[in-house]
UniProtKB/TrEMBL annotation, chain A:
Compartments, as annotated in UniProt: Cell membrane
Ribosomal protein among keywords: no
Membrane-crossing residue ranges in chain numbering: 12-30, 102-123, 144-162, 201-221, 259-286, 306-331
Protein name as it appears in the record: Dipeptide transport system permease protein
Protein's UniProt keywords contain DNA damage: no
Family: Belongs to the binding-protein-dependent transport system permease family.
Topology with respect to the bilayer: Multi-pass membrane protein
Signal peptide: none
Keywords associated with the record: Cell membrane, Membrane, Transmembrane, Transmembrane helix, Transport
One Gene Ontology cellular component annotation held by this UniProt entry: plasma membrane
Automatic annotation (TrEMBL), chain B:
Membrane-topology descriptor: Multi-pass membrane protein
Domain ABC transmembrane type-1 as annotated: residue spans: 95-284
Gene3D superfamilies reported for this sequence: MetI-like
Compartment(s) of residence: Cell inner membrane; Cell membrane
CC per GO annotation: plasma membrane
Protein family according to the UniProt entry: Belongs to the binding-protein-dependent transport system permease family. OppBC subfamily.
Name listed for the protein in its UniProt record: Dipeptide transport system permease protein
Transmembrane segments: 29-50, 97-122, 134-155, 161-177, 216-241, 261-284
Any one Gene Ontology BP term: transmembrane transport
CDD domains membership: TM_PBP2 (cd06261)
From TrEMBL, chain C:
Name of this chain's protein: Dipeptide transport system substrate-binding protein
GO terms, molecular function: peptide transmembrane transporter activity
Gene3D superfamilies on file: Dipeptide-binding Protein, Domain 1 (3.90.76.10), Dipeptide-binding Protein, Domain 3 (3.10.105.10), Periplasmic binding protein-like II (3.40.190.10)
InterPro entries membership: Peptide/Ni-bd, SBP_5, SBP_5_CS, SBP_5_dom
Organism: Pleionea mediterranea
Lineage: Bacteria, Pseudomonadati, Pseudomonadota, Gammaproteobacteria, Oceanospirillales
Length: 339, 298, 562
């Protein structure tokens, strides 16, 4: 176990080095004066300009500049947005909770309904249920997220008036951002609004999380189905069956547990897919998360924010993947060495 | 005069024949293939099939609904957009862009991916390590975000969007090629060839390439559908093809403003993307099953 | 190993699985049908106005920002100026200054300040004194003196202060007593009052600045603004919303809207969807198509207001044959502006005949504009010795602007009209920054552009766009320097009497019409879509939105849209 953790940690450290190296190389490619890109409109030759040159190590070798860059990152200094003039790290943490909340709910939806649908299809193999699951998961898997979101808004929000169009909560509620997670913050405002704010926040989550969950849900359903079919044909299941273990127990305990093992890696891979989807979903629903922040930053040509934001997102994905690998090692007996 | 056959002749089907027989059994895959062929035809013969020029504006026919609705007219099968352009013609010409651009993307990605994968697979130590770490990092950044960042650096527009999406797809090819090579290299026949004194390049072309073809083909189909969605997404965000280009994602972003007044200008281009991606995924599924008969078809 | 699997243990139980499934379903149904609607606080709804704005402000510092979005979020709600425009006009009215005195040659302006005006308070600061002359000194010196401790705070240029040349115009600002302040100018400048009504002269609190200096948090003067305005800043969530509260001690009296929220929604179609779904009460910058879609619904109103802007096509008078007055007149007759108004502006604009908009004082309504007449245009070209026409380029940029929703489409329509009189035009487009640079260098034959007024003074059009002085930086893209015209507008700048100035500007418009350095295309209307419960909302002529004085019609429980 310790071995595995140690290995994951070294991988993490190496990835960190690699990422910073690649990003440092990328920053060299950004057209324009690096001082102006990072510090805004300073007059070349002015005192502040020279101070900035020195701070970035531009008067030193490339290697020195890289060291300064990594050192800054390790100190949590990712520069300042050249639009708002606020530190990129604090900007990131104002946007991240919204993305996290949305992604978490979407992952839960995808996991619960994906596994259910997959198991159902595997158990009822070659029936209409199976066909329905197969075909709808194929459609879901091929869905262009941005179009899907627009369709749902058109249908549920504009034509039927059932769900809100955009945003995280109705502005009637004055919710103080404490954790940044609207579901939590709205409950913290219980004394003011009781459960009304919480339910309103939930209502605002329905469409975006559904849209974001679509592709991972389909992927999980497909994966669960094929993995479950494989497991159900395995010898130990047949043995269990012949021993008279109940069908429910076979499916949900013996079957699913083993079918879930390959699924864990799929879920890990979905974190990157999920964030890609989040960029589009957030744009469509005016959801103030990291994805929308990045797109806006690109339109504003706010390079410090882009650099810092993408770096942090990459760290996050790598961290998730490492954790998933670890989880995989924990739950998969084959990965463990005999004592 | 034909030969007289004396012996009962049941020829063993060739490699491709076997493959086709297996593929044909897959109903969904056949359906996908049919759709794909139709879309391909649209793309190849757009000028013949499209009734109008995709940018021509019929100013007296603004926002006409599709022909099958009450207000629609036959001249504009799928209706017209806000500038009076024929939506059907735009979709037909758009298929050209979608398929063509994605093909370019996949080609670039596959070329570089195979090359890097081969280098990584045939080498050991620092080179392999470096390549694979870089690929891991590219994979760690959400694909669309990476494409957006690349565009932010090199500027928006179609060619840049192609490079950006291609770069994002390279790691998948590298991983597959490297993994297959590693696997094949330990097989007896390769070791035998090695003992015979075959060099790396020869080993690669004669022993390994035939064996990585099946997973590669499947990966191409996967990359293809990703490329179509990503290019459309970039167009939608205003970072890919620029209007009045009839690229599907660009059409969608343009017609967003008319979602309430002319909903068909939103639904139809999206449907086109969905159908194309779905067909490619169906074909991809079929290919995978047909190329890998060992894997149980559920 | 078994004990690691709480998740599977959960799945193990058939009951819990069914419960989970049932629970999810019932929650989904509950939410979709909106059972909890009634629980929403009606009072909160009736005291909250939500404005769907078009973007995030780049800063809350009214001295450094330059775009309307940022002025809407800061200067127009949080701050006051010494003087103000009377709503919907360009007339100057008192604000923080009760009254003022101007000396005979327009070089000394004395302002008598209002007493008992209180500043907002926040977690960093509670004011101990009301507004006085020190605050005025602080707000101007911060922009004027490069060594001022707050000059570098925010790390941005004072773009408007410099653009209006205030750094050279203002010789001295004198505090006569606590409630009297005097501006001494280096030269006579009659538009000065209009300049002081502009947002960049917003008055900040000197006491707050001092408190922040002591706390070593100077940046908070931008991030947590304190002003004297009708609404005080509460919170800003980037790219999401800005929240304000009514200032309890506002000197004009507390606003009836207790909560004001800017819901930041950059995408126009989403903004429109939100206002039709009644998620917001006011929508900024609707597209012409949205106004069309609204004809079918009842729940919303459209506020439409003529704007102080102009879209024009200027002719580089340094390049032959455009140096010939007859050719320029011919081009004026050749273009069918009615068609442009229909195809590009969807009717939300009017044809322009003068370089200044009709709401500007001194507008000369007696001028007879150039009507579409291709035959006359061909005759004029014949007279100019160009019977076979000629070829020119049209420079423009591919972006939407308040004065022109689609410049490319406009250029294409002009191109078609020119073909009729034998003139071949080639459209050349550049990204807007490059476009401006190239036009300033004078390499274009003609350029298609526009102008939005900074203040309510005619000099903001004549002086900035058509004076000889403006040909040097190239803001005058026609490079038109007419001796008599220029003498008139220079004169008008130094006279303080408005009626005399108006007479001069009216004469200038006659010369402009005769010389035709531009084709004046259109004055665009600015629109807002508003929920019917919003009362008394008006737009300023500069296109800004002020929520002071707006009220909400209270709703009863049944027709509440949430």
């Amino acid at each position: 176990m310790i071995r595995i953790i140690f290995r994951q940690l070294t991988t993490l450290a190496l990835s960190f080095l690699g990422i910073t190296l690649i990003f440092f190389a990328l920053t060299q490619l950004i057209p324009g004066d690096p001082v102006i890109i990072n510090y805004g409109n300073l007059t070349p030759g002015s005192e502040e300009y020279l101070a900035a040159v020195h701070a970035m190590g531009l008067d030193q070798s490339l290697f020195q500049q890289y060291l300064i860059y990594v050192d800054n990152i390790l100190h949590g200094d990712l520069g300042r947005s050249n639009i708002t003039n606020k530190p990129v790290l604090s900007e990131f943490f104002t946007f991240f909770p919204a993305t996290f909340e949305l992604s978490l709910i979407a992952t839960l939806i995808a996991l619960i309904f994906g596994v259910l649908a997959g198991v159902l299809a595997a158990v009822k193999k070659n029936t209409w249920v199976d066909n329905l699951v197969i075909s709808s998961s194929l459609v879901g898997y091929s869905m262009p997220v941005f179009w899907w979101g627009m369709l749902l808004i058109l249908l549920f929000s504009l034509n039927l008036g059932l769900t809100p169009v955009a945003g995280r909560i109705s502005y009637v509620f004055d919710i103080e951002p404490v954790t940044g997670l609207m579901l939590v913050d709205s409950l913290l405002a219980y004394s003011k609004y009781e459960f009304a704010a919480f339910f309103d926040a939930l209502r605002h989550l329905i469409l975006p999380s559904l849209v974001l969950a679509t592709v991972p849900l389909a992927a999980i359903a497909r994966m669960t189905r094929s993995s479950m079919i494989e497991v159900l044909n395995a010898d130990y299941i047949l043995t269990a069956q012949s021993k008279g273990v109940s069908r429910w127990k076979i499916i949900w305990v013996h079957g699913l547990r083993n079918a879930m093992i390959p699924l864990v890696t799929v879920i890990g891979l979905q974190s990157s897919v999920l964030l890609t989807g989040a960029i589009l979903t957030e744009t469509i629903f005016a959801w103030p998360g990291v994805g929308k922040w990045m797109v806006e930053a690109i339109f504003r040509r706010d390079f410090p924010s882009i650099q810092g934001g993408v770096l942090l997102i990459a760290f996050f994905v790598i961290f998730i993947n490492a954790s998933v690998d670890l989880l995989y090692a924990v739950i998969n007996p084959r990965m463990r060495r005999p004592k | 005069m034909s030969e007289v056959k004396i012996y009962k002749d049941t020829p063993i089907p060739g490699r491709w024949q076997q493959f086709w027989q297996r593929y044909r059994r897959h109903k969904g895959a056949m359906l996908g293939l049919m759709f794909l062929l139709v879309i391909l035809m649209f793309a190849l013969f757009s000028p013949l099939l499209a009734p109008h020029d995709p940018t021509e504006q019929f100013s007296q026919f603004l926002r006409y609904p599709p022909a099958w609705t009450e207000k629609g007219i036959n001249e504009f099968l799928l209706g017209t957009d806000d500038l009076g352009r024929d939506l059907f013609s735009r979709i037909v010409y758009g298929s050209r862009l979608s398929l063509g651009l994605s093909a370019a993307v996949v080609l670039i990605a596959a070329l570089f991916g195979i090359l890097l994968g081969a280098i990584a697979g045939l080498s050991k130590g620092i080179i392999e390590f470096a390549i694979m770490r870089i690929m891991d990092i590219i994979l760690a950044v959400p694909s669309l975000l990476l494409a957006i960042v690349i565009i932010a650096i090199i500027g928006p527009g179609l060619p840049n969007a192609i490079y950006a999406v291609a770069i994002v797809l390279i790691p998948h090819f590298v991983r597959i090629v490297r993994a297959t090579i590693k696997e094949e290299m330990n097989k007896d026949y390769v070791i035998a060839a090695k003992l015979d004194g075959a060099n790396g390049a020869r080993l690669f072309t004669h022993s390994i390439l035939p064996n990585i073809l099946p997973p590669l083909i499947v990966q191409v189909s996967l990359a293809f559908s990703t490329a179509i969605v990503d290019i459309a997404a970039l167009g939608f965000l205003g970072l890919g093809a620029q209007p009045p280009n009839p690229e599907w994602g660009t059409i969608l972003s343009q017609s967003r403003d008319f979602i309430q007044l002319a909903p068909w200008t939103v639904t139809i281009p999206g449907l086109a993307i969905l159908i194309t991606v779905l067909s490619i995924n169906l074909v991809g599924d079929g290919l995978r099953d047909a190329l890998d008969p060992m894997e149980s078809r559920g | 190993m078994q004990k690691n699997f709480t998740l599977f243990a959960l799945l193990n139980l058939r009951d819990s699985c069914q419960t989970l499934f049932g629970l999810t379903l019932s929650i989904a149904l509950l939410l979709l049908t909106g059972c909890e609607k009634a629980a929403i606080d009606l009072d909160a709804y009736n005291s909250t106005l939500v404005y769907c704005s078009e973007g995030s402000p780049d800063s809350f510092d009214p001295h450094t920002v330059t775009i309307g979005t940022a002025f809407d979020a800061s200067a127009r709600q949080i701050y006051n100026r010494l003087v103000a425009f009377k709503p919907g006009t360009v007339e100057i009215t008192p604000s923080l200054a009760k009254r003022w005195k101007v000396n005979a040659d327009s070089t000394v302006y004395t302002f008598y300040l209002r007493k008992n005006v209180s500043f907002h308070s926040n977690e960093f600061f509670t004011p101990t004194r009301s507004f006085n002359a020190d605050d005025v000194l602080f707000s101007f010196n911060r922009q004027k003196n490069t060594s001022h401790p707050y000059h570098r705070v925010g790390n941005r240029d004072f773009a408007y202060f410099n653009f209006q040349s205030l750094n050279t115009l203002i010789k001295d600002i004198r505090k006569v007593d606590d409630h009297t302040i005097q501006f001494v100018l280096t030269r006579p400048y009659s538009p000065f009052l209009s300049v002081l009504a502009m947002e960049f002269t917003s008055i900040m609190s000197a006491e707050y600045a001092k408190a922040l200096t002591d706390l070593d948090q100077k940046n908070n003067i931008i991030h947590h603004p304190i002003g004297t305005g009708p609404f005080q800043f509460v919170r800003y969530q980037a790219d999401a919303y800005i929240r304000y509260r009514a200032h309890p001690d506002y000197w004009r009296g507390k606003e009836t809207i207790e909560h004001l929220v800017f819901a930041i929604t950059p995408d126009p179609s989403l903004r429109f969807a939100r206002v039709t779904a009644e998620e917001c009460d006011v929508m900024s910058n609707p597209l012409p198509i949205h106004l069309k879609a609204l004809e079918q619904t009842q729940a919303t109103d459209v506020i439409s207001q003529r704007g102080l802007n102009i879209a024009y096509w200027s002719f580089n008078t340094r390049k032959p044959p455009l140096d010939n007055k007859l050719v320029r007149q011919a081009l004026n007759y050749a273009v069918n502006r009615k068609a442009i108004l229909e195809a590009v502006y969807y009717g939300s604009a009017e044809i322009a005949k003068n370089p200044i908009p009709p709401d500007m004082w001194s507008y000369n309504d007696n001028i007879q504009g150039y009507d579409y007449n291709p035959q006359l245009a061909r005759n004029l070209l014949y007279k100019a010795g160009l019977p076979d026409g000629f070829s020119i380029d049209i420079y423009t940029f591919p972006e939407q602007r308040a004065y022109n929703p689609n410049t490319i489409k406009t250029a294409e329509l002009i191109q078609q009209d020119l073909k009729d009189i034998g003139v071949t035009a080639q459209i050349v487009t550049y990204e807007v920054g490059t476009f401006l640079q190239r036009v300033k260098s004078g390499e274009h034959d003609t350029s298609l552009q526009g102008w939005i007024a900074d203040n309510g003074d005619p000099d903001n059009f004549f002086g900035s766009l058509l004076s000889c002085e403006a040909t040097i930086p190239g803001q005058n893209s026609a490079f038109w320097c007419h001796e008599e015209f220029d003498a008139i507008i220079q004169d008008a700048k130094t006279i303080s009497k408005k009626s005399q100035r108006a007479k001069l500007y009216k004469r200038a418009q006659e010369i402009f019409k005769e010389e035709a350095p531009w084709l004046t295309i259109a004055h665009t209307r600015q629109n807002l879509i508003v929920n019917q419960r919003v009362k008394n909302l008006e737009m300023s002529l500069s296109g800004g939105i002020f929520f002071s004085g707006v009220s909400l019609e209270p709703q009863v429980a049944d027709d509440k849209p949430l």
